[in-house]
Amino acid sequence: MDVTIVGAGLSGLTLALALAKAGLPSLLVDKISPHAAVAKKNDIRTTAISLSSRRLFTVLGVWQKIADNAYPIHDILVSEAGSESILHYDSRTIGQEPMGHIINNNALKKSLLSQLEKYSDFVSFIDNRSVIALEIRKEQALLTLDDGKVIVSKLVIAADGRDSRIRTLADIQHTTLDYHQSAIVDTIQHSKRHHNLAHERFLPGGPLALLPLQENHSAMVWSERTAVAKRIANLDDEFFSTALKERFGDSRGILKSIGPRAVYRLAITVAQSGISKRVALIGDSFHCLHPIAGQGFNISVRDIAVLAELIVDAGRLGLDIGSTPVLKKYQRQRRFDIMTMGAATDMLTRLFSNDFITLKTIRCFGLFAMNNIKPLKNITMLHAMGMLGILPKLLNGKTI
């Protein structure tokens, strides 16, 4: 096998599809079956898909399957409790495309699996198995599964999440910053239309975001100190809706929690390297960021676009796709984006998750300045859309 991908979540499935479409076979290994996980519909989270990520999914034939269930974001409004300063992004000021779309994780995963069925000659699955050992030889990586089976490949790709087993086995160190925050995730019905506006409101305990879904519905991501988040999440729907209204305000009218509701721990985890011998990290195994900037999965998509292009090009040239020179190119091309986004989300989380008067003044000035300095505002908007810099082919809507 040329490539073994450990982890069949959104990142692993997307990479497998990108490779398959380019004619490069891969094996997906996961401790649970992705098909069973989709059938259970147990992932209620939503994902923000930037413009460049949408282009990748269009090339892969996935977007056509999910477009009717992907809800556009034309505007982003950022506000802070107790302040009149706001920051308003309008995508129509720089073009006709939405800044992004909101889609349910389960729907995206289902579409990826459906599209992968068309490439069954290039993708195979081993479900309900865990990796217990990794051995690197000169031109091979050997994975041992918990049933004793040994998988030999040229390249192992870790897509197994924040607590990556492959990252540990490859002896890649990582840094974790725990903000002692958790995110409450819910679906909210409101009496006023959202007009495809995503609203993020900063509170002392963390940001509260309502992201547009169908009609008068929004996906909610409410970050709070963990103990507080658990108490709020356990309120009945009426008291929860009241607490939400007190913090969010009247812009969407009457708010009603319609669930299901869940709580997820928040922290930043960044690997000190994205590669080791015969191993590459993508997605949350490489970088798991705070959702304050709404860019988590889009950064993972950028990993996928870069790595897929590099190894496909290497394979077509007859080069060793798991060689150190190929992997070092991946590391170089991804390092700056990941480090800057990690630093930015850390700074924003620390800056906005407290009520110190000095920082509050800085925040108000920052929002005012960003909203009124058009060139800076446009640059940050383009970055949110994934359209800054030299982009790999898939993010430009081109095949590899």
From TrEMBL:
Keyword list, A-Z: FAD, Flavoprotein, Monooxygenase, Oxidoreductase, Ubiquinone
Q: Name one GO molecular function term.
A: oxidoreductase activity, acting on paired donors, with incorporation or reduction of molecular oxygen
Q: Which InterPro entries match?
A: FAD-bd (IPR002938), FAD/NAD-bd_sf (IPR036188), UbiH/COQ6 (IPR010971), UbiH/COQ6_monooxygenase (IPR051205)
Which Pfam family is one of those matched by this entry? FAD_binding_3
Q: Which SUPFAM superfamilies match?
A: FAD/NAD(P)-binding domain
User: What Gene3D superfamilies does the record point to?
Assistant: FAD/NAD(P)-binding domain (3.50.50.60)
Cofactor(s) recorded for this entry are:
FAD
Q: What class of enzyme is it?
A: oxidoreductase
Which GO annotations describe the biological process of this protein? Answer: ubiquinone biosynthetic process
Indicate the segments forming the FAD-binding domain, all copies: 2-312
Write the Enzyme Commission number(s) for this entry.
1.14.13.-
Q: Which pathway does the record list?
A: Cofactor biosynthesis; ubiquinone biosynthesis
Family the UniProt entry places it in: Belongs to the UbiH/COQ6 family.
PANTHER family in alphabetical order:
UBIQUINONE BIOSYNTHESIS MONOOXYGENASE COQ6, MITOCHONDRIAL
Protein name as catalogued: Ubiquinone biosynthesis hydroxylase, UbiH/UbiF/VisC/COQ6 family protein
